[in-house]
Amino acid sequence: MQPHSIRDSASLASIFWFTAIFLAIFLMAGCATEVNNPALERARESYTHARQDRDLVARAGVALERARLTLEQAERVWTADKDVVEVEHLAYLAEKRVEIARAVARRRLAVEELQRMGTR
Length: 120
Prior knowledge:
Largest sheet: none
Number of helices: 5
Oligomer: single chain
Number of domains: 2
């Protein structure tokens, strides 16, 4: 009778460990359900990088603000709906608006330099 109880204990221990491992995997998978959108990540990175450029912020703040608003809209759509097509479209627009802000800043810098050269 004792060998039978040892076998039962081993079987219960196996079931316990299998259940514990299964629950751990299940919980980890549950934590990983937040899926990131690569286009949204690129747009965030582009905007964040642009915000760190003081010259860009000073010379093209309004254009950069438009990029921020578009990025926020993309983030809202992603959070609420996970609409990949719409988010990728908005993320693309946000990235392009950052590029526009950079172009505006470069143009304004060029105008400033021409004005300085003209006053010499």
